[in-house]
Write a structure and sequence with these properties.
Blueprint lengths: L4 H22 L6 E2 L11 E2 L2 E2 L2 E8 L6 H15 L3 E6 L11 E3 L2 H9 L9 H4 L3
Parallel strand pairs: 4-5
Antiparallel strand pairs: 1-2, 3-4, 5-6
């Protein structure tokens, strides 16, 4: 069966709900929930996740085609829209339906922001972006 726009949206909603429910129950925080769409100022798919007092934006993806750089850009835009400290991507691990086994991806800068609770270490200097 071919995936349609409607079936993709349904799968995405189901995955977002799975992730939100798992996090709310596991972290024992009833503020964590699937976020309704915000149009052009999207602020991520899951709301209510906090670390060291700062908001964490979670962008969920349920697709077999990986687009980590595109997803990372999207998570970063949504992190900024939400004035959050960190933006991460939670993507479906196909063939494994357990929520705790899904993938979470972030840049090293996001990881450092998560560990320190602030973004003071990040830079947008072009010479640093193209060294490797």
């Amino acid at each position: 069966m071919t995936r349609t726009r409607k079936s993709a949206r349904t799968a995405g909603t189901r995955f977002e709900t799975l992730v939100a429910t798992y996090l709310a129950e596991t972290l024992d925080d009833d503020r964590i929930e699937r976020r309704s769409r915000n149009g052009v100022k999207d602020r991520g798919d899951i709301t209510g996740v906090r670390h060291m007092g700062g908001r964490v934006v979670i962008e969920c993806k349920n697709t077999t085609a990986l687009d980590l750089s595109g997803w990372a850009r999207q998570a970063d835009i949504e992190r900024g829209n939400d004035d959050a400290v960190v933006g991460v991507i939670c993507h479906k691990r196909h063939g494994n339906a357990l929520p705790e086994n899904q993938w979470v991806t972030m840049t090293l800068a996001e990881f450092v922001a998560l560990m320190t609770g602030n973004r003071d270490h990040t830079t947008n200097q072009p010479e640093r972006n193209n060294r490797l």
